[in-house]
Amino acid sequence: MMTVKQIYELAVSLGIKNDLRGINVVNRKLKRAKEKFEELKTSERLDFDIESMKNPYADTRILTSGLNKQVKRAMVGIDIDTSEVLLANELSKKKPIDLIISHHPVGVGLAGLGEVVDLQIELLHKYGVPINIAEDITKLRMSEVSRGVNASNHNKVVDSAKLLGFELMCTHTIADNMVAKFLSDLIKKNEKKLEIVKDLMKLLKEIPEYREASKIKVGPKLFVGSEDRYLGRIAVTEITGGTSASKDSYEKIANAGIGTVLGMHMSEEHRKYAEKAHLNVIIAGHMSSDSIGMNLFCDELAKKGIEIIPCSGFIRHSRNKITK
Ligand SMILES: [Fe+2]
Ligand SMILES: [Fe+2]
Predict the structure, then answer these.
(1) Ligand 1 centre and the CA of 242: distance in Å?
(2) Backbone angles phi, psi at 135, to 5 degrees
(3) Span 179-286: which CATH code?
(4) 3-state SS class at 48
(5) Which residues of the chain are under the pLDDT cut of 70?
């Protein structure tokens, strides 16, 4: 059993631990947020996002107020809407659900989505794009994303959870960091076996969540390139970082020496830019990739005795060793 607050703190620490940018970069960013706060006048501090000094992921937040509520059972989904809250209410009649966790951000977490895109600056740099170019194209993307989510009805589901007395949390980038690290480590471990596109497709299809997704025709797919082309250097650039990268990033990473981009999802317009840049693009799958991240997070909750009720496209697969 854990409290809502303990679950949130664990989520943030797992996000930092698995951040592809490395812990030093993340800590420097947190330090800068603190300095920014200290420089503000008291009147200006009201608008400052206090959480940003210890949580670098604006899309991972507790959205209700029962921080000390003990959690024995959590309903976890990729998207939580009012329909899932109603579902939780029905299920609670048999056995209580103490917390609802959404992967995709809602409430203040959704409004902060543009902020986490800044992760892509150091991520693109890690794959060889000069930091100033990475910063320029990512900053533009951040403002695009922020404006894009600005008109949403951010608190709709939060209001529903409050009306029915549920605790609600969203864990977006922390889980995306976990799947990005998982895939990046898997690629590193199998480096010698990975020569052509087909080799990576085969490796991905061995992962349980992707195997499950393949059964409903949404397994890993090749969006650009062909199976017999060389992979070249593989970049895990579109698994974490809030949302899809800047369209200009493809040309930049191709010039930086990348041959293949592994992503979760890709728009048709982005695809055309990637094709023009001579890249291979493997799209592992959206719900399935998000499920891997949420599984790695939920495995940590399960270790503390929390029962997980998967819903809303979440393909639950535990990697915990059965000890009983
Ligand atoms: Fe995700
Ligand atoms: Fe997603």
Answers:
(1) 7
(2) -70, -45
(3) 3.40.1390
(4) coil
(5) 323-324
Distance 266 CA to ligand 1 centre (A): 13
Which pLDDT value is given to residue 323?
A: 52
Q: Which residues surround ligand 1, an ion (CB under 5 A)?
A: 176, 290
pLDDT digits (tens, 9 = 90+) for 145-174: 999 999 999 999 999 999 999 999 999 999
Q: Which residue has the tokens 């794959």?
A: 127
Report yes or no: 124 and 252 within 8 Å, Cβ to Cβ: yes
- Contact present, 106 and 154 (Cβ < 8 Å): yes
Cβ-Cβ contacts under 8 Å for 209 (sequence gap 6 or more): 288, 289, 291, 292, 295, 315, 317
Ligand 1 centroid–CA 179 distance in Å is 9
What was the pLDDT predicted at 321? Answer: 86
| Cβ neighbours around 216 below 10 Å, total | 10
The bound ligand whose nearest atom lies closest to the alpha carbon of 292 is: 1
Cα separation, 310 vs 302, whole angstroms? 12
Query: Global pTM?
Result: 0.97
Single out the residue of 293, 286, 306, 313 nearest to residue 84, CA to CA: 313
Contact of 228 with 198, CB cutoff 8 Å: yes
CA distance 53 to 30: 5
Structure tokens given for 6: 């303990």
Rounded CA-CA distance 199/282 in Å is 12
CA distances, 247 to each of 37, 76, 122, 194 (Å) = 33, 32, 17, 26
Q: Where are the domains of the chain?
A: 2-174+289-311, 179-286
CA–centroid distance, residue 290 to ligand 2 (Å):
6
Residue 238 tokens read as 């579109």
Task: Determine the pLDDT at residue 324.
Answer: 47
Residues in CB range of 206: below 8 A, 6 or more apart:
none
The burial class, CB within 10 Å (0-12 / 13-18 / 19+), for 191 is exposed
N-term to C-term CA, the chain = 18
